């Protein structure tokens, strides 16, 4: 994984423009669509953070696939009881690879969207939406830290995912058109999971260490950007209708968007 330190967000946009042009060129000349890279973006508020799923942060260790699937099968029944929302996980116990269990993956995406610890890492097809999540959260961090004058940096990852051989460890994406929560569509979400094989079983693995060793043609790039222009970036994104309300559509998201528009300029430095 290559890390590139930039001075401004505008520099990032210029680099991404060139990368996307390369993707389009490959799409035009490549006969096998599965080999065409799909640009996935992920924004993180702190450039020092690594790529971690919510399940990794919750458990602080890797666990076998089957152990996690057994737990979420129980969860699906409880969701049906408490929320009157039934999910089809009929393929959960099928004897096939996880990436072929479409119904189960859709349920896992729903769990991830609603805060249940998940082995899925969320990305977006939009570099602008990835920027929004990074910048919004870095402002919250800056508000809470002691030395507010010290420069901090946020990060945006670009992962040009293309189908590769399933040689452990490897990363797979779910696809953009799975049936799950509406927020998935609004945020142009994609999800990936990372698998590795131990002596006896297959486990969910860490994305960061796996992507560090990806083949050069399919490698992930981490762009780090100073957070000094965070408010200006949020204003630009809001003009593009990328804000809390457009991405979440909840009442609290509306209040957050209105606060950003009408109060943010009054903040103390």
Counting structural domains, the number is: 1
Span from first to last CA? 35 Å
> Can you summarize the main beta sheet?
4 strands, mixed
Task: Indicate the overall shape.
Answer: globular
Q: H/E order of the elements?
A: EHEHHHEHEEHEEHEHHH
For the residues shown, what is the average pLDDT? 87
DSSP strand count: 8
Unreliable spans: none
Number of helices: 10
Question: What's the assembly state of these chains?
Answer: single chain
Class based on secondary structure composition and strand pairing? alpha+beta
Cα-atom radius of gyration: 19 Å
Helix percentage range: 40-55%
Spatial order of strands in the largest sheet = 1-8-4-2
Taken as a percent bin, the fraction of beta residues is: 15-25%
Give a structural overview.
- The protein has 269 residues and is α+β, with helices and mostly antiparallel strands.
- The chain has one domain (2-51, 121-264).
- The chain has helices at residues 9-29, 54-59, 65-83, 102-113, 127-144, 182-186, 207-212, 230-239, 244-248, 251-262, and strands at residues 2-5, 38-44, 121-124, 153-161, 170-173, 189-197, 202-204, 221-226.
- Strands 1-8-4-2 form a 4-stranded mixed sheet. Strands 3, 5, 6 and 7 form a 4-stranded antiparallel sheet that branches.
- β6 (189-197) and β7 form a beta hairpin.
- α5 (127-144) runs antiparallel to α8 (230-239).
- The protein is globular.
- The model has no long low-confidence stretch (mean pLDDT 87).
- Residues 35-157 form the FRG domain.
- It comes from Candidatus Auribacter fodinae.
- Pfam families: FRG.
